[in-house]
TrEMBL record:
Protein name: Flp family type IVb pilin
Keywords: Membrane, Transmembrane, Transmembrane helix
Stretches that traverse the bilayer: 21-38
Keyword Transmembrane helix (UniProt): yes
InterPro entries named in the record: Flp_Fap (IPR007047)
Pfam families: Flp_Fap
The species this protein was found in: Qipengyuania polymorpha
Length: 61
């Protein structure tokens, strides 16, 4: 009976689960932010490549 009461009062597992949930939320936020940043960087590099291609085809002054 003491063993069952001891297990019921033990909160270490609950704390570990809470830390795990916090880490998961941080990971989701980081992945979302990195995805948005990646799309923006891709667009920027595409614009630079387009401008460089246009400058390459223009005759020199």
């Amino acid at each position: 009976m003491k063993f069952i009461n001891k297990l019921r009062n033990n909160e270490e597992g609950a704390t570990a689960i809470e830390y795990g949930l916090i880490a998961a939320l941080i990971a989701v936020a980081a992945i979302t932010a990195m995805g948005a940043l990646g799309n923006q960087l891709s667009s920027t590099f595409d614009n630079v490549a387009t401008e460089m291609g246009a400058a390459e085809t223009e005759p020199a002054a």
